[in-house]
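Milestone 3.1: sequence recovery, worked example.
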């Protein structure tokens, strides 16, 4: 099983923590970098190899991870010289990837079963599998439904339930074939193209622990929760 870890972003929203360190290497719990936790989890799940897409401060990631042998992984790198979006880096390494593989952001803290995501992707024969997580948004206003300038319904401070992308995907190499290597490709563009072609992605629903470390508040929460969640996040690793 092969995984691609997207670690080329500048981590602008996480400054000042990312001024000197790439976001995947910011420490969690004063012991592990986020990326190390991810690599340990992948190895424990049965993955044997991965490619890390690097860009901003990528040389630091190379120095830290090396060839991945200390985690029982074979690690290769793909250099991103200009921003290529979420899926764009995959196009530059497309010819070196297996038919189906896992793709994930390098700043995700979760106890998601990565092997099961890839297995479900293989079984579904879908072009893309998206790991999803439930979210609830509370609206602090009275919400009006209108038709032809008339109010036809009213809800006081409702909650809206929906599912969001976790930044973890099962991808088929054939799905990337229509796109040109070296040009940017966003996750949103890929999903919209698949929907337009009536070839929809498959959803992998997950309700466990997940934290996308994108902002200082998220990072502070990750550190505060790591001690209590360490056994869960590093089980078998």
């Amino acid at each position: 099983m092969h995984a691609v870890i997207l670690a080329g972003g500048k981590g602008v929203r996480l400054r000042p923590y990312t001024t000197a360190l790439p976001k995947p290497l910011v420490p969690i719990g004063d012991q592990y970098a986020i990326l190390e936790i991810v690599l340990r989890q992948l190895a424990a799940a049965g993955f044997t190899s991965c490619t890390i897409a690097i860009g901003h401060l990528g040389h630091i990631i190379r120095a830290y991870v090396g060839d991945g042998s200390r985690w029982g992984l074979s690690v290769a790198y793909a250099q991103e010289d200009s921003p290529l979006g979420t899926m764009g880096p995959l196009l530059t390494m497309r010819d070196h990837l297996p038919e189906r593989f896992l793709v994930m952001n390098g700043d995700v803290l979760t106890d998601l079963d990565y092997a099961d995501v890839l297995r479900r992707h293989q079984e579904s024969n879908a072009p893309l599998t998206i790991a999803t997580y439930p979210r609830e948004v509370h609206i602090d206003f009275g919400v009006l439904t209108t038709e032809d300038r008339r109010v036809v319904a009213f809800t006081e401070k409702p909650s809206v339930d929906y599912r969001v992308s976790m930044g973890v995907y099962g991808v088929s190499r054939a799905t990337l074939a229509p796109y040109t290597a070296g040009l940017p490709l966003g996750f949103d563009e890929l999903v919209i193209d698949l929907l337009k072609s009536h070839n929809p992605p498959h959803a992998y629903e997950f309700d466990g622990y997940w934290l996308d470390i994108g902002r200082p508040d998220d990072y502070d929460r990750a550190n505060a929760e790591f001690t209590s969640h360490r056994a869960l996040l590093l089980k078998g690793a």
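The two ends are 17 Å apart (CA to CA). The chain has one domain: 2-132+165-233.
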